[in-house]
Write a structure and sequence with these properties.
This protein is an alpha+beta fold and about 500 residues long. Helix 11 packs antiparallel against helix 13. About 40% of the residues lie in helices and about 20% in strands. The relative contact order is 0.13. The protein has 19 helices and 17 strands. A seven-stranded antiparallel β-sheet has the order 8-9-10-14-13-12-11, with helices on both faces.
Length: about 500
């Protein structure tokens, strides 16, 4: 959640439906690309690869250029780190040299987002998140990801695939009915279209084949493609068994990995020979990501365990147990799979002289029961609460004033669940102001590269790992280690610390 609140003004009468409607939209997943947004139905794929130089003045290039700023807004903007940017650009450069026309240009952006993802737009716009960079273990694994996305562009998959009409209608309806704030609505629609732009299984497999061939020809180890898919499966399994944050627009959902797909990737790699061919460049890659921000950025605030905290705003909000939490630019969202309950926490500008009960009753909550509007005290802070019902959902809506800002807690449960009272009270009391010491202690996490010494083990190197309750397990998945695989003295490994 951004510290700047201007995007939460002009709240819609239907804002109370945000938690569940937006969550339903973002649940749609496929390999991420926005290649066909706004294309005419009769537009045929070009005979030439759709990359920057040969379409810069065409319709496809204009589509990519128009969507580029929306993608940046949806994923926290670009992550600026000259050393990291050069490392990534060097990998792209090697891949371009083996293309049919190496003079053609790709533009790659590193997204300032912990979400693990990579995708492409027409016109040669490539994107990789710092979340994905943190999980990749060497230059060859990153080359596999980038080559796969380049293959979608050169094969014109976005033009060949038509966006499903029902999903497009859903995206438009969610934005028009839920968000009246134009800026927030554009971001939600952009993120929705990211989720909706799915490639078919055949296109995914075709991109795998093209990408592995390209990275092998460029001198990278072609087996890294299968290794990265296996690493992502292990990362997914680890996250599924912990309280780790679940992101609905991540690589795990948009690039589905299966044993068959890994086996096919290995088949493509064997065309270049046995394992051991090609470069991995692990040490150079780790040097490039050393010091890179990991997880949430200071501007977004931090989700640590069940608590969201923001130093600049001086606030903390603890979510009830059992919820998966996602920190987005527009809000912090949480969902509980066991009963479908949802929570949205965000902020809004309310005139200091307007009472919070008047604000609650001012018309922005659809289905509000006016008789339930009441003043409440939340950990010594002024607040107000009310109930609403929209369709199949019951809502408890709480607003609280702290540090000159008003914050909103929207709790939703299915009608008749009987869980709303306890869940709302638990959520309401989870909001508080931070002390000066707590604000000072909130620091971002970063990737730190360490060199293993004689006698080092997974347990010893993971003692300083932060952001997890299972240091050894997190260390293994972050470094792509198999169960039981030992540390090698002299080699470099990733850790996560302040």
């Amino acid at each position: 959640m951004r510290s700047v609140m201007r995007n939460w003004n002009g709240t819609s009468r239907r804002r109370a439906r945000t938690v569940l409607a937006v969550a339903a939209l973002f649940g749609l997943a496929g390999c991420t690309s926005l290649s066909n947004m706004g294309l005419d139905e009769d537009l045929a794929p070009s005979a030439r690869p759709v990359i920057a130089d040969n379409v810069r003045s065409g319709r496809l290039a204009r589509i990519g250029a128009a969507q580029h700023p929306r993608i940046l807004a949806s994923y926290g903007g670009e992550y600026s780190d000259m050393r990291l940017e050069r490392m990534v650009a060097g990998i792209v450069g090697r891949l371009v040299t083996v293309s049919d026309n190496p003079s053609q240009v790709y533009q790659i952006s590193i997204l300032d987002s912990p979400v693990i993802n990579a995708f492409a737009l027409p016109g040669g716009y490539l994107y990789v998140s710092r979340g994905l960079l943190a999980v990749a273990n060497d230059s060859a694994e990153l080359a596999a990801v980038i080559a796969h996305e380049m293959a979608h562009v050169t094969a014109n998959h976005g033009v060949l695939r038509q966006q499903r009409e029902a999903e497009a209608v859903l995206a438009s309806r969610v934005v028009s009915e839920v968000l009246s704030d134009k800026a927030a609505g554009q971001r939600a629609l952009a993120r929705g279209k990211v989720a909706l732009a799915q490639f078919s299984r055949n296109q995914e497999l075709e991109a795998d084949g093209i990408g592995i061939a390209a990275m092998g020809e460029a001198g990278f180890d072609p087996y890294a493609a299968a290794d990265f898919q296996a690493a992502m499966s292990a990362f997914n399994a680890f996250n599924s068994g912990t309280d780790a944050q679940v992101n609905s627009l991540d690589f795990l959902s948009t690039h589905p990995s299966t044993p068959q797909r890994v086996a096919l990737a290995l088949g493509h790699a064997r065309k270049f020979g046995a394992r051991g061919v090609g470069d991995r460049n692990r040490q150079a890659y780790l040097a490039g990501i050393d010091g890179m921000l990991f997880g949430d950025s200071p501007d977004e605030g931090y989700v640590r365990g069940r608590t969201y905290a923001h130093a600049d705003l001086g606030i903390a909000f603890e979510f009830p147990a059992g919820f998966d939490i996602e920190n987005r630019p527009e809000a912090v969202l949480a969902a509980r799979a066991s009963d479908g309950a949802g929570i949205r926490f965000d902020g809004v500008e309310v005139p200091p002289r307007q009472s919070l009960t008047d604000y609650l009753a001012s018309g922005w909550v659809e289905g509000l029961d006016p008789s339930t509007v009441r003043a409440v005290s939340i950990n010594g802070l002024d607040g107000a609460a009310a109930r609403a019902r929209v369709g199949r959902w019951d809502f408890d809506v709480t607003v609280v004033r702290g540090g000159g800002q008003v914050y909103r807690i929207l709790v939703a449960v299915p009608v008749g669940s009987g869980a709303l009272d306890a869940l709302a009270q638990n959520s309401r009391t989870g909001f508080r102001m931070l002390s000066a010491a707590e604000k000072a202690s909130l620091k971002p996490l970063r990737i730190r590269i360490v060199r293993a010494g004689n006698g080092d083990t997974v347990e010893s190197l993971s003692q300083t790992m932060l952001g997890t309750t299972d240091g050894p397990g997190f260390f293994r998945v972050l470094n792509g280690l198999e169960p039981g695989e030992a540390i090698v003295a002299g080699q470099y490994y990733k850790t996560v610390t302040h």
